[in-house]
Amino acid sequence: MIAVDGFAAGDLPADEMAELDLDGAGAPAFSTDLFDLDGDGYYETTVRTTDAGITVATDLDGDGVTDKFTAFGRDGQYRTWEIFREANGIGRGEMTESGEL
Fold this sequence. Notes:
Number of helices: 1
Largest sheet: 6 strands, antiparallel
Distance between the termini: 27 Å
Order of helices and strands: EEHEEEEEE
Number of strands: 8
Radius of gyration: 14 Å
Shape: globular
Strand content: over 45%
Helix content: under 10%
């Protein structure tokens, strides 16, 4: 798992990481925006844009950990996962939706 700005955002597949290496230097290029959608002063949503597409990670219950993660590919495909925490604290993702835009 990769933790980004307080959000656990599962590993990017190797083929997406390869697409992100724009200058051959081995460093992915991306931008991140944080949003407070409910106006409570807490950034619960992270939108990350990369050459592979866009990801949206949202903390629905305010505990600082991603509960819902959606990846939108440049090819129009999308996948959504709900993230659950086991009693031992380990997270697991369950794909809840997928399709094409």
